[in-house]
Amino acid sequence: MNRKINDTLAGLMAGIVFSGAVIQAGDLIFAAVWPQFAAARVDFALGLWIGVATALVLAVHLYRSIDRALDMQPGDAEKCMRKAYATRTAMILLVAGVTCYFKIGYVMAVFLGMLCLKFGAFLEPLMHKLWEKFHK
Fold this sequence. Notes:
By secondary structure, this protein is mostly helical.
């Protein structure tokens, strides 16, 4: 199994963090326009970045499980990927449950932060191009 983070995973992680920063900036603008929502900014930001951190962990887990499954026979690879999917789903539910139980930020902001995994997947080609442009 490959222990080094490859360029695709790095681009995905950069896209996750970038999309989290864009959402955070949007929240700051939203709070500046409507001051009555400014009090909830800390809870939203905390929930968002808990979700972004979870999305980063999920991305690494997804990368490692795909890398592991590529070295297996087709039947074993399918079982491995189902188990990995169940593990990631349990991680999502656990983080949401802990956030809700301990009242650490907004749970919906946590899910929005986790959704940054999807946004990061769409942004990965752009992040890869930017990486290539600035590191040559």
